[in-house]
Design brief:
The complex is a heterodimer of chains A (140) and B (82).
Chain A lengths: L1 E4 L3 E4 L6 E5 L9 E7 L2 E9 L6 E5 L1 H4 L9 H7 L5 E7 L8 E2 L5 E4 L4 E4 L10 E2 L7
Parallel strand pairs in A: 3-10
Antiparallel strand pairs in A: 1-2, 3-4, 4-5, 5-6, 6-7, 7-8, 7-9, 8-11, 9-10
Chain B lengths: L10 E4 L3 E9 L2 E7 L9 H14 L6 H17 L1
Antiparallel strand pairs in B: 1-2, 2-3
The chains are: A mainly beta (140), B alpha+beta (82).
């Protein structure tokens, strides 16, 4: 199917590439379907494009690229919404003009179950920041 | 702030049509049942902050991916050097 997007123009996506959000992105509860857009040789940065709204596109970063020790425990509720399988986790990036102003949300990752083509945003227990500088303290 | 003591199974009313019921207490968790008119919005307070962060993340203009990736690659090189 063809998909209109603000950032990428018209793109072609397969029905099986569409991810159903079984726990919505907070504040975007009406958006249930997204596609993950990335370059084949680089999956560290992923564009999460809404199927239903061409203007909504989140930028996700692979946590392993930024953090060495990010392995949060998911709640039973989150696991139930995702079903069984191996999950992929992405951190929502807030993009800013200056790189040092960019932040990532460690508290509420997007979790995808590629086998079931479903995803959630979950709010983790514990002391994770909602806004952590993307490029760490050493650049500040 | 008004502070009241309640036991599991007991309720309190806010106005005439909002009821908060303490369903269960175990360890440091309290289960609360809420009966309220449909038009009353109920959210966990921390979710408001999440919502704000999400809205900010979605508000970006089209992003120069190459630039962002090169920043990240540079950052990673710094990290590996340490």
């Amino acid at each position: 199917m063809k998909l209109q997007t603000r950032d990428f123009g018209e793109i072609e996506v397969a029905a099986e590439d569409i991810i159903q959000f079984t726990m919505p992105i907070v504040g975007f509860e009406e958006l249930k379907q997204f596609v993950m857009l990335y370059e084949e040789d680089n999956q560290q940065l992923i564009w999460l494009q809404s199927v239903e709204n061409p203007y909504i596109c989140f930028i996700l970063a692979d946590p392993s690229m930024i953090l060495t020790d990010y392995a949060p425990t998911l709640s039973a509720e989150a696991k139930e919404a995702l079903g069984e399988g191996e999950y992929w986790m992405g951190l929502i990036v807030v993009v800013a003009e200056k790189p040092e102003d960019m932040t990532i949300n460690l508290k509420c990752p997007i979790v995808i179950n590629p086998n079931k083509q479903c995803g959630i945003q979950t709010v983790l227990e514990g002391d994770y920041p909602i806004r952590r500088p993307l490029f760490g303290e050493q650049r500040r | 702030m008004l502070v009241l003591v309640r036991k599991p199974g007991e309720s309190l009313l806010i106005g005439e049509d909002i009821e908060l019921k303490i369903v269960d207490v175990s360890g440091d968790q309290v289960r609360i049942g809420i009966q309220a008119p449909r038009e009353v919005t109920i959210v966990r307070k921390e979710l408001l902050m999440v919502k704000k962060a999400n809205e900010e993340a979605a508000a970006h203009q089209p992003v120069d991916k190459e630039k962002l990736l090169s920043f990240m690659a540079g950052f990673r090189a710094d990290k590996e050097k340490q």
